[in-house]
Amino acid sequence: MEDILEAFREARELRRRHADWDFIKRLPPKLKAALLYYIETGDIYVASRIAGMSVAEFNELRVKARVPSVT
Q: pLDDT tens for residues 43-62?
């Protein structure tokens, strides 16, 4: 169980480290909240719902924000 939790922590750290924070800070609140949720959890489905986008649309936003997809 500890190994799984450590993998989640490492994935979250990678997403945080590589994100373009200047880009994220300039976004409207709803999109910023969605990206922050994704960075913390890695849950693209829920993040896309927060943003009011399809998963594909949110994935494009994630790429623009330079947030890696870590699984």
A: 999 999 999 999 999 999 99
